[in-house]
Amino acid sequence: MSNVYNINEVAKIFNITTNKIRYYEKKGLIEPLRDIDNEYRKFNDEDIIKLQSILLYRSIGLSIKHIKDILNNSSNNNYLNHFNNQYEIVNSEIHKLTDIRKSIGKILDNIYEADDCSIDNNILHIIKHADELNKIRDNWKDKWDFDNWATSYDNDVLEDRGALKIYKNYNLILDNVYKLTIDSEINNPYILEIGVGTGNLVSKFLNNDFAIVGIDQSRKMLNVAKQKYPQLKVRLGEFLKIPYNDKCFDIIVSTYAFHHLNSMEKSIAIGEMIRVLKDNGKIIIGDLMFESKEDEERILKGLSMEQIEEINDEYYSHIDFLQDEFKKFNKILKYTRVDNFNYIIEMK
Ligand SMILES: C[S@@+](CC[C@H](N)C(=O)[O-])C[C@H]1O[C@@H](n2cnc3c(N)ncnc32)[C@H](O)[C@@H]1O
């Protein structure tokens, strides 16, 4: 037989106020029975278990509305949806708060060290810089709708129907990125793939027992990758907000993904990759690039309107720009040309 508790007993069990319990009831999260004689609430064991779940979900920041939805629908998809949402929210907050902490640290250094007259200006300048960085991070949007492309992506790569034939060397590029990674002198590297997509590159590492995790900003791409390679660990994540702590990985790899960032975003992404990379770590990226602005202009002259439009829909890198960006971190960038548009860059 189920135990019965009154509201005060329940409040005591969880060390919460009776008001909080009434609030959850008002919001429709719990529906305790009422005593027929005095209308007092009566909680059974099921209510207690439900209340415990609600409090635990609250403790990781889930909203009342979302908790209600989880309690009403415990399908795998619904869980995935809510926990991915929450993962994204928490990750964004961590990035934002980390930047704010960094800024306040810099401000404190300024106050301790600067002469009085420059303090006000410096403080505002530091805050403005952090604010701008945060806005760029938050404003990145998937304007290509990768979710919608996820199930047909592998086939489209095979057919390579675009005007530029950017996938004609797809397998060669993935193979070369893989080879460069395993040729590195790092023993048992922990690898991160960014923009893992449907998992075609990651599969090479998995097949050879490398420790690798894949992040992507598209949930549907992650679903496809996970279906194809159930053993793969995936996380929702972006170049601009990599959801890992500092110095986690030995090597970062990526193919056909970096060109979805404009120059400003690329520069932030480079900082992000270096942040999560261990000292002496490596970055190997296969992607669409030109050696320089001049190189782009020269190549564009020989292309059709349709091909130029295809290029303008994305942000092909200029390698000389990337070299300058990596130089800011004292890193050297080597590159190899695969075809007119595809290059492999290697930072070590
Ligand atoms: C053209 S697909 C390439 C997929 C896979 N890397 C491959 O080589 O087949 C681009 C992938 O990068 C992901 N992507 C694009 N921009 C991204 C970003 N800013 N952060 C993380 N992933 C991104 C997309 O969601 C998509 O899965």
TrEMBL record:
<dbReference type="Pfam" id="PF08241">
    <property type="entry name" value="Methyltransf_11"/>
</dbReference>
<dbReference type="InterPro" id="IPR047057">
    <property type="entry name" value="MerR_fam"/>
</dbReference>
<dbReference type="InterPro" id="IPR013216">
    <property type="entry name" value="Methyltransf_11"/>
</dbReference>
<dbReference type="InterPro" id="IPR029063">
    <property type="entry name" value="SAM-dependent_MTases_sf"/>
</dbReference>
<dbReference type="Pfam" id="PF13411">
    <property type="entry name" value="MerR_1"/>
</dbReference>
<protein>
    <submittedName>
        <fullName>DNA-binding transcriptional regulator, MerR family</fullName>
    </submittedName>
</protein>
<keyword id="KW-0678">Repressor</keyword>
<keyword id="KW-0804">Transcription</keyword>
<dbReference type="InterPro" id="IPR009061">
    <property type="entry name" value="DNA-bd_dom_put_sf"/>
</dbReference>
<dbReference type="GO" id="GO:0003700">
    <property type="term" value="F:DNA-binding transcription factor activity"/>
</dbReference>
<dbReference type="InterPro" id="IPR000551">
    <property type="entry name" value="MerR-type_HTH_dom"/>
</dbReference>
<dbReference type="GO" id="GO:0003677">
    <property type="term" value="F:DNA binding"/>
</dbReference>
<feature type="domain" description="HTH merR-type">
    <location>
        <begin position="4"/>
        <end position="73"/>
    </location>
</feature>
<keyword id="KW-0238">DNA-binding</keyword>
<dbReference type="GO" id="GO:0008757">
    <property type="term" value="F:S-adenosylmethionine-dependent methyltransferase activity"/>
</dbReference>
<keyword id="KW-0805">Transcription regulation</keyword>
